[in-house]
Amino acid sequence: MDAAIARMRAAEGEEAFGAADVDFHDAVARASGNKLILICSDVVRSIVLNLIADKIRAPELRSRSIAHHEEALAAVRAGDGPLAARLARQALSDFYSPYLPEGALDELLE
Question: In the chain, count of helices (H) and strands (E)?
Answer without folding.
Answer: 6, 0
